[in-house]
Amino acid sequence: MINIFSRQDGLIVREKLQNIQSIPQKIEKILWIDLFQPSAEEVNYISQTYSLNVPTKEEREEIEQSARYWEDSSSITINTYFLVRSSEGELHNETITFLLCKNILFTIRYSEFRVFDEIQQIVLATPKVFEDGFDLISKIFEIRVEKDADLLETAAKNTRALRKRVFNSQVIDYEDMLEELSSLQELNMSVRDSLFDKRRAITAVLKSNKADADVKKNNTIILKDLNSLVEFTTVNMNALDNIQTILTNQINIEQNKTIKLFTVVTVAMMPPTLIGTIYGMNFEHMPELQWEYAYPVVLLIMILSTIFPIVYFKKKGWL
Q: Is residue 309 within 8 Å of residue 302, measured between CB atoms?
């Protein structure tokens, strides 16, 4: 699907087109062309019509700086990560392509992003704010960074709650806590990767001579926010690493207690085992076998030989 935003009579009008045959031959003052899940035919049409070098799927996913941002005499191409929630509810990064050519913004995306729904409503409601594609991309990045900040605040809150559970819970479900810890770590890493990628893109835009002073001023503010959020992710990751260390130590302590218990039981059972082994030999000349009370006496000795090591270990503080 193709969404075309253009200026008409002082307003910004959106046209939703299902295929390239529906694209008007001439649209005055185009501001934004948003391609959602475009076909190869649609991408080729846009590329040929506006003389754009649209990156392939492989080029979109490359991580080198030269593949994430490049600029020529007439256009700027940006491939950057945006967080999106999958059908299973998991957050992951997906690449969105932004192309700026002749002050028109082209976006190519293959998933639904709430930030795009919001920005489209803002564009239609406040047409005077958006003069060209640079204003649009700045606003898109601004909204996305705000949402990333909200995600990090929620992650930090959940991290503090997890830490309290680790210290205050009488019965610790290690499997559940480790799963929650892993989920928080994955979220922080995903947000951090997204922030790093957007920071590189905005830094490159600031160096471009195609953006005007107002756009660069807005992008400078966004860049400062990005830097603070990157530091925030580092603090979160350190806190999660600390929780992981504490949990690992507690698991080791519990395992040591279990091993100690088995060791004590094994040692405590050695004397009665020895006694039972001796009297299981059935030698012909074994006087104890003729005693009337030999059997209960041997049982008593075996019990005492089990109790004595346990009492001794407790006095030593080994239990």
A: no
For the whole model, what pTM was predicted? 0.76
CA distance 187 to 236: 10
The per-residue pLDDT for range 198-245, each reduced to its tens digit, is 998 899 888 888 888 888 999 999 999 999 999 999 999 999 999 888
Rg (CA), the chain: 35
Q: Which residue has the tokens 């005492």?
A: 304
What are the residues whose beta carbons fall under 8 Å from the beta carbon of 230, sequence distance 6 or more?
A: 192, 195, 196, 199
The CATH number of residue 146's host domain is: 3.30.460.20
Q: What is the pLDDT of residue 209?
A: 87
Instruction: Tell me which of 156 and 53 has the higher pLDDT.
Output: 156
Beta strands at 11-17 and 30-36: parallel, antiparallel or unpaired:
unpaired
Identify whether residues 10 and 113 lie together within a single domain: yes
Q: Give the count of domains, the chain.
A: 2
- Which residues lie closer than 8 Å to 147 by C-beta, 6 or more apart? 83, 114, 115
Ramachandran angles phi, psi of 31, nearest 5°: -105, -40
Per-residue pLDDT band at 255 (split at 50, 70, 90): confident
For Cα atoms 60, 137, 47, give the angle at the middle one, nearest 5 degrees: 50
| Structural contact between residues 53 and 70, judged by C-beta atoms closer than 8 angstroms | no
Residue 86 is encoded by which pair of tokens?
A: 């999958």
Helices (H), strands (E): how many in the chain?
8, 7
Domain around 276 = 254-315
Exposed e or buried b per residue across 229-248, where buried means at least 16 C-beta atoms within 10 angstroms of its C-beta: beebbeebbebbeebbeebe
pLDDT-based confidence at residue 73 (cuts at 50, 70, 90): confident
